[in-house]
Design brief:
It is a single chain. With 380 residues, the chain is of the alpha/beta class. The protein has 2 domains: 256 residues, 3-Layer(aba) Sandwich (Rossmann fold), CATH 3.40.50; 97 residues, NE0471 N-terminal domain-like (2-Layer Sandwich). It is 30% helix and 24% strand. Strands 2, 3, 6, 7, 8, 9, 10, 11 and 12 form a 9-stranded mixed sheet that branches. Strands 1-13-14-15 form a 4-stranded antiparallel sheet. A hairpin with a 2-residue loop joins strand 4 and strand 5. The longest helix has 22 residues. It is globular.
Amino acid sequence: MAQDKPKRQPHNEISQGMARVKHIIAIGSGKGGVGKSTVSTNFAIALKNTGAKVGLLDADIYGPSQPVMLGLNKQPEVRGDYLIPLKKHGLVFMSIGLLLSEDQPVIWRGPMASKMVQQFITNVLWGELDYLLIDLPPGSGDVQITLAQQAALTGAIIVTTPQQVALGVANKGLQMFKHVNVPIIGIVENMSGFICPKCGENTPIFKTGGGEKLAADLGVNFLGGIPIDPELMASGDEGVPLLEKKGDSPAVKAFVDLAQKFKSVSSQVIADAAEPSSIALSDDGNLVLEWPDGQSASFSPYDLRISCPCASCVSEDTGQRTLDPKQIALDIKISGYEKVGRYAVGITFSDAHNTGIFKFDRLKSIEQKQKDSTGKTFNV
């Protein structure tokens, strides 16, 4: 039924550099100052200690801190058009901090930061990895959107602290990932109390339990809490992650438990994602989506074109459709398409229109409406 031409655009496929990476995991926070980079670094070591091959990408363009945490201060090798990530403590690693002098600030607008992140996606030879962890900057802006659209993210982990102000912002970051169909693997609560090294008593300096409650309220996994540990902070300054040292502190045990919990729940979370298993064009030119359950949905070029959700076809102020269907030729065709992250498909039509991004969850709901009301057109 399906034909190979016209093919989807190649630039949005997983790049050659990431072709051998099995799972790409984004680690976000929404809010800065929650210790996300410290968690990412030690979580990567904990995963590596389970026998997994792990890479770490420091995508915090404006405040890269992981080169210091890993004790790295040299530039990566350039091989043709590609960067070769550095290796330290059993991890492969890349950061903009490796490309700049220590005192050189990054004074870039959003598009420049996004372009740099795109270079990390397409022009770094990561090799064969079980997991590539991406430590994101705070917020839910250009860098996060670029990653969601350009990399096939397997899932996301949200790091928060117990305070209400941090939980609220963490929830916004979590909702951003849901909006682009990136599965939420779970929530980690950092600074989850201070355990006295002498008496073992846990003092809730920033409260405790907020991350677990947020996870329960949102119906996602709580992956665990990481207690405040002076040795954890000191190890970051020394360039030797805490889990690379000999010890059995509460923080070390917490990261070991975090890695085990992550591996036990991530496969099911990933399997539940509403993403088509294949996208193709039928012999009659329709866009065909094959769902993981074996069911397929077919959409005609004309119906998709008159239902384009982009800003030139729908008013951003009122949400009303501004495109007149009479202006669209009935025999319009799809001349190209590309998968956008894990959440949508971008389509180029024979009239050269190519700015519409059609979300999978919306197409799936439209499919159901078509079944309920045969013959009716739809709005995406």
